[in-house]
Specification:
12-stranded mixed beta sheet, 2% helix
Length: 209
């Protein structure tokens, strides 16, 4: 499959227990883990899953870190700087102008499975897969499976020298759902996009400041 990570992928069984929709919402984010304090915050994932004092619960699965069945309230920039990580059944409430930034590493894979990202009062910036300046391109992969992305300026933005895999995902009320390249650099982006839905279900949220 063109675009999948070059490292061997072990069988991964997804049998998450979905969080009840009445446990959390835009108006009730109290049950969620707070990431970032304001729009200028920059928060590293590696600081939050530190084994000595973790803020985000996780466990190891064949050497990969897994975060499962959590909700997050995100402000500012949330940086995914862990090479191999699975997010399974997470729900992210994205504050105005907030973003998720995925840092490239060789032989890295970041998985988002059965999850949802949504804005609340205003649009959020989106998920950005940063360009990989390594001479070996395509070894840093982002994989989205059965995941919903709503209310973003750019749902998923993929820069040069990357692999992106998107399957059975929903893109709802985004200004732009998918964006490829940085400036005029569209080189070496391997993509595999299948079975996705792109829809507008009404007025977009107001633009962020």
């Amino acid at each position: 499959n063109v675009g999948w990570t070059s490292t061997p992928v072990k069988n991964f069984s997804v049998n998450s227990i979905k969080l009840s929709s009445n446990q959390h919402s835009c108006s009730n984010q109290t049950p969620c883990i707070q990431i970032g304090n304001n729009n200028n915050s920059v928060t590293l994932l590696s600081d939050l899953i530190n084994e000595n004092n973790p803020i985000i619960p996780s466990y190891l699965w064949f050497g990969a870190r897994v975060v499962r069945n959590q909700c997050f309230s995100i402000k500012g920039k949330f940086v995914i700087d862990v090479a191999i990580i699975y997010f399974v059944n997470i729900h992210c409430y994205m504050d105005s102008g907030s973003e998720v930034e995925i840092v490239p590493y060789n032989n890295a894979s970041r998985w988002f499975i059965d999850s949802e990202f949504q804005g609340c009062s205003q649009m959020w910036r989106g998920i950005k897969v940063l360009g990989n300046d390594s001479s070996t391109f395509g070894n840093s992969a982002a994989i989205f499976l059965n995941t919903k992305i709503k209310d973003a300026w750019r749902g998923i933005e993929v820069e040069h020298n990357n692999s992106i895999n998107i399957g059975q995902c929903s893109f709802v009320n985004n200004y732009t759902s998918l964006h490829f390249g940085k400036g005029n650099n569209y080189s070496n982006i391997l993509m595999n996009i299948q079975g996705c839905i792109f829809e507008n279900l009404g007025a977009l949220l107001p633009a962020y400041d």
